[in-house]
Amino acid sequence: MSEKTLPAHARVVIVGGGIIGCSVAYHLTKLGCRDVVLLERAQLTAGTTWHAAGLLTSLRDTEAQTKLAKYSQDLYRSLEAETGQATGLVGCGSIQLAKTADKAEEMRRGIHMAACFGVEAHEISPVEVSRMWPLADVTDLTAAFYFPHDARVNPADVTQALAKGARQRGAQIFENTRVTGILTQGGRAVGARTEQGEVRAELVVNCAGMWARAVGRMAGVNVPLQAAEHYYLISEPVPEVHPLLPILRDPGNCAYIREEAGKIMLGLFEPVARPWGTNGIPEDFRFGEIPPDWERMYPYIEQAMRRVPRLLSTGIKLLFCGPESFTPDHNYLMGEAPNLANFFVAAGFNSLGILSGGGAGFVMAHWILDGRAPMDVWSVNLRRMHPWQDNNRYLHDRIVETLGIGYQDHWPFRQAATARGVKKGVLHDRLAAAGACFGESAGWERPNWYARPGQRPEYTYGWGRQNWFSNNAEEHAAVRGQVGIFEQSSFAKLMVQGRDALYVLNRIATANLDVPPGRCVYTQFLNTAGGIEADLTITRLAPERFLVVTAAFTQTHVDAWIRNHIPEGAHCTLCDLTDAYAMLNIQGPASRALLQAVSADDFSTQGFPFATCREVHVGYQTALALRLSYVGELGWELYIPTSFAQPVYDALIDAGKAHGMRHCGYHTLNSLRMEKAYRDWPHDIGPADTPLEAGLAFTCDWRKAGGFIGREALLAQRETELPRRRLVQFLLDDPEPLVYHNEPIYRDGERVGFVTSAMYGHHLGAAVALGYVSNAEGCSDEYVTSGRYDIELAAQRASARASLVPLYDPKNLRVLA
Ligand SMILES: Cc1cc2nc3c(=O)[nH]c(=O)nc-3n(C[C@H](O)[C@H](O)[C@H](O)COP(=O)(O)OP(=O)(O)OC[C@H]3O[C@@H](n4cnc5c(N)ncnc54)[C@H](O)[C@@H]3O)c2cc1C
User: Fold this and answer.
1) Tens digits of per-residue pLDDT, 45-67?
2) Full-model pTM
3) Which of 435, 648, 762, 794 could form a disulfide with 476 if both were Cys (CB 3.0 to 4.6 A apart)?
4) Residues within 6 Å of ligand 1 by CB
5) Is the model's pLDDT at 695 over the cut of 80?
6) What pLDDT was estimated at residue 3?
7) What is the pLDDT of residues 110-153, one digit of tens each?
């Protein structure tokens, strides 16, 4: 029981006093929100935080996570001076080791990406590693990379410092105060119930670590995470080690090594992990440990010790096992719940909660108080998750793989190996028989490419041309020359209906949806700062009925965005029809002839103009056909009631033989759209990019009655300045190199941005990329097109041509054919 009395009301209630809850409290008070109450079931740090290893390494997979890590390092450096509470920070730096040439390539690409976000790193030789870490065996190394500003901290002390800073500015922290329920009213969180009474609040933040799933359930909010065993060991004292030895990150051995009070700490990220607490995390688990399983871990330990062979002959003082929570995709869960207003989550830190805790608190505090995140954090947004991911078996099986991912090879196009086959469209078996190599998106098994007869539909990963390169080339050529069939049933299909449906959608869409029924409209949804929250097509099927189609992984987000913008009392409903319809996308110059062969309906230029829709008959079946293209060709998307899908598919395949039709996968969709410079959300456009910067201002109807959310911010940007950054398409001059994403872009030798997405443009004959070019004085057309550009690929630069108009079919003649 806490001795203080709980207040009846607070502006913000935070559940959980680990590093994340304390960081959120710290940052809220820093932004001036002092009426903050933090409720901790046990004592501060009693969950996972107390036993963390405290590594602060800054290089992460994504821009957002790298920025959070960098911010955390900077913050922790100043916390002691600010609060008087020591943090145990040691500026020891870190070294990442690469055993293989592939890992070295990945790391080289990584440090160039990190440089774009202010992280300093240098490639060093194995000899230099020996000099810095004399006990390390470097004989098997290909390369190494030194991060001079990386550090380590004492996680409990950092947390206490954050808590102290928060308290100094007015936050109240209640230990031994367990939250037993979340108070809700009218679709909003309005407080928390504890064993000591209720605290009403305007905003509730779930920072309950591995209990966050249970706390989410109290509010009906899914927080799909699962705890797993996580290990490190501490040796007996080793005379040669000292605190300033850099942290060694050794992905080839799934391990990290650092000094700990004259001993060596060796931590493990084994590739096959063991979930823990699968029937729920015990309520009374505090400052807890899990009995270590020596037998399971010994092979990993022995392998990892070879990096510092002295360990093999030094005693082990402690083999520690503690639980940490992991998520299905190894990214955190942050942001406002899709289905409960004013209920925020910050949990699922995948063993990165210390190094990202400062940044996470900063982002959350802004998100909570301003209603949106201060930067693009889609990769960690809770709304990328789907309700089905709260499935116990799925979480158990996927987390076995997640724990080790950070230390494995991050190949381009790498697919999850576990918990597959969650969702299969009705055509799945037919596509498999046609050679589909499936990838996963939002649980759907989707064809990424098709194997030739005799070829195994499996990836061989690498940084060069992977084994499906020529398959992709052939599919690409078929769409440019004849016709391709893409199975895209995973796309989310949301029906928005009612007397106020037009009003609701027109307020959130940049384009004017007051079009005649039968018209398809390409549009974005913006936040109040003009950032792009969604990129989609909306078809007006009837005066009061709209079909909203969006990418599978955005389903929860777009659904929530629309629902949350339906004013109280409005006559407007949203119904998710995703599973009711299959979708086949027929694209290419021969698509008209092909459809004409299976349907008596009129598919002519005049009879079925671009961006229109109508019902068509294919055999005995009826489908909704939308004339649209994301690949830059003549084509139609067919939305087919699921039970009709197989016969329609069979008819198309049969007729397709005479028209050179090929099955095409998502990699081909991507390589085609890159040539046409069609943007991809969230890679090329996202919540921190405006349509003006992204070259999408043409979708904005500035004059429509009632305007649209984000319009004022865009007008201000348009009137006061040239955009300081613009999305530009690049084509490499050399046909050989490949570009993936995050590669730095140089203009006249100066770094001006980085690649947001890229694919090989088989028609244009070289890699094609999209990326933002920035200039503090503004990016005029002249500025963009007059530069000489290079893209940095690992250790070399490749010259590229820049274009503000699509390099493929700039006049749109093929789409409008
Ligand atoms: C062995 C190990 C080593 C690690 N090393 C590192 C590292 O080197 N670097 C790094 O960045 N990360 C590391 N981590 C991960 C890091 O410890 C976590 O990501 C981080 O501590 C998570 O912080 P949190 O605040 O989300 O969770 P927690 O610290 O678990 O805090 C959640 C709090 O919520 C409280 N709570 C739960 N339910 C309720 C309730 N109903 N009411 C009130 N309170 C409640 C709990 O008591 C707990 O104190 C490591 C983890 C492990 C296990």
Assistant:
1) 999 999 999 999 998 888 889 99
2) 0.97
3) 762
4) 15-21, 39-42, 46-49, 51-55, 178-179, 207-211, 215, 230, 232, 322, 324, 347, 349, 351-355
5) yes
6) 60
7) 999 888 888 999 999 999 999 999 999 999 999 999 999 999 99
Q: Which secondary structure element, helix H or strand E, spans residue 25, and what is its range? A: helix 19-30
Q: How remote is the CA of residue 346 from the centroid of ligand 1, in Å?
A: 11
47 Cα nearest atom in ligand 1? 30
Q: 41 CA distance to ligand 1 centroid (A)?
A: 13
pLDDT band per the 50, 70, 90 thresholds, residue 230: very high
Sign of torsion, CA 372 376 377 379? Answer: positive
| Dihedral pair phi/psi, residue 72, rounded to 5° | -60, -45
CA triple 309-310-316, angle to 5 deg: 110
Q: How confident is the model at residue 1 (pLDDT cuts 50, 70, 90)?
A: very low
Closest listed residue to residue 60, CA positions, set 346, 540, 405: 405
Ligand 1 geometric centre to CA of 89 (Å): 19
Mutate to test the pocket of ligand 1, among 2, 154, 351, 403 (most ligand atoms within 8 A of CB): 351
Mutate to test the pocket of ligand 1, among 92, 211, 266, 325 (most ligand atoms within 8 A of CB): 211
CB 49 within 8 A of CB 155: yes
In this structure, are residues 324 and 285 in contact, taking their beta carbons and an 8 Å threshold? Answer: no
Report how far residue 513's alpha carbon sits from residue 526's, in angstroms, rounded to the nearest whole number. Answer: 15
Nearest-atom index, ligand 1, CA of 21: 25
Report the C-alpha gap between 674 and 757 in whole angstroms. 8
Taking only the tens place, the pLDDT of each residue in 84-116 is 999 999 999 999 999 999 999 999 999 998 888
Question: Which residues have C-beta within 8 Å of that of residue 709, sequence separation ≥ 6?
Answer: 507, 508, 525, 526, 527, 528, 565
Beta bridge partners of 758: 769
Q: HSE of 167 in the Cβ direction (CA atoms, 13 Å)? A: 13
Phi and psi at 757, nearest 5°, equal -160, 160
Q: How many C-alpha atoms does 192 have within 13 Å on its Cβ side?
A: 32
Contact 224, 385 (CB under 8 A): yes
- Whose CA is closest to 704, among 485, 448, 476, 521? 521
Q: Decide if 212 contacts 360 (C-beta within 8 A).
A: no
Measured on CA atoms in the order 392, 396, 397, 398, is the torsion positive or negative? positive
Q: Indicate the average pLDDT of the chain.
A: 97
Atom of ligand 1 nearest to the CA of 325: 19
Which of 247, 287, 244, 288 is closest to 262 using CA atoms?
A: 244
Is residue 584's pLDDT more than 70? yes
DSSP 142: S
